[in-house]
What we know:
Elements: H1 3-69, E1 73-74, E2 77-78, H2 79-85, E3 92-93, H3 99-103, E4 134-136, E5 147-153, H4 162-176, E6 184-189, H5 195-201, E7 207-213, E8 236-245, H6 263-271, H7 285-301, H8 307-323, H9 329-365, H10 376-383, H11 386-418, H12 428-439
Parallel strand pairs: 3-6, 5-6
Antiparallel strand pairs: 1-2, 4-8, 5-7, 7-8
Amino acid sequence: MGLFxxxxxxxxxxxxxxxxxxxxxxITLPLTAIAIIGGTINGTLISFWLPEQVKLxxxxxxxxxxxxxxxxxxxxxxxxxxQNTKNDFRLRRLNTNDWVGRLGFIHPxxxxxxxxxxxxxxxxxxxGDIPSLMYDENxxxxxxxxxxxxxxxxxxWPDLYKWDGAFxxxxxxxxxxxxxxxxxxxxxxxxxxxxxxxxxxxxKAPSLLHFSYEDDFVNPEDIQPxxxxxxxxxxxxxxxxxxxxxxxxxxxxxxxxxxFSSEREQLLSIMKGDRLYEQFEPYDSQSQEFNRILDYLxxxxxxxxxxxxxxxxxxDWFTKNVFKSLHLEDIYSSIHVCTAFITYTxxxxxxxxxxxxxxxFWEFLGVDEFAPEHNxxxxxxxxxxxxxxxxxxxxxxxxxKNVTIREEAENQRLYKESGTTKASLPQRTxxxxxxxxxxx
Length: 440
């Protein structure tokens, strides 16, 4: 009998705390409702987007795997090797199967590349693993330079994309003035043979990856348990990698804050030997993944004319005019992040059995699970990929913009030569615009 009053005494404070929390939630709900709704939507989007990226990386690896098997030419010089060296950058290209060796580094034996599936001792993502890279001082191969740069491009087309053209100009100027002669440069095509690497590294174009190795030998305690290297521990130096994404802000360049930095100057200022890359933190896979999530959410929320875009404007107004004036913007952001994390966790727990079931269900039926005709959801996500829409949409818009400008200039020329009114001329730009709307 004496135990029940004790339990009742303990329940009363808990009940009181619960009532206080409920009242606080109801009172603040008009102000926090937007953050809760936005966080819930973000958590839902992320929970579907992350598995989609894993599947896209798997498909990219399968494509690279098939391209290697189907490569043709003489053994010492195949068509793939020709593309690796004969390109507009006049640099060597890094691919999924050779990037570690070309840089002069080694991976753990458990991460070794093999064309035989039964010899793959770890997951596919380990083929692009950066934190486990080591430099073997005792290797018989030529020692790599202390610093190496890898330029991340979409299609490596300097004549079409301004950042690719700026990179080609930067390396020409850098080599001419001796600024980068002590380094070695490579490039990766994110829409070509490096699609898998860009996906695993979570990098986007244009970017620079800086590789260097430490002066001191690695300690055995610093090596992840279970991993071994063919050279043993003696003579290994840890590789440090940094990711620099462009365009840069003025704080990262060597130019004054009042000067305008062109694309070429931004690239050259990082590579020219002033060690400005040290302003960037070493590579962290979780940070890179978080950056890509933010890019994806920014694309989704900034689509004009959508409900999410209107909700984003309301959220931005609340942050600037209400919470910032009350110095509570950190609390508002915390509510948003916590709601997104909780939503993501719940949906992931629910969807994991579904993904597991569909994977083995298609395997049991002998159907390729990556084939879009067998999975309507995969086909929908593939068509709605924001990077795909953004790439072709921007390319299409630039094409029609150039055509319209040229036709407008032609109309102006005819107007000046004939002396007629502009209205009497055939307005071909209107026809082009109608054609653009038709094809869009």
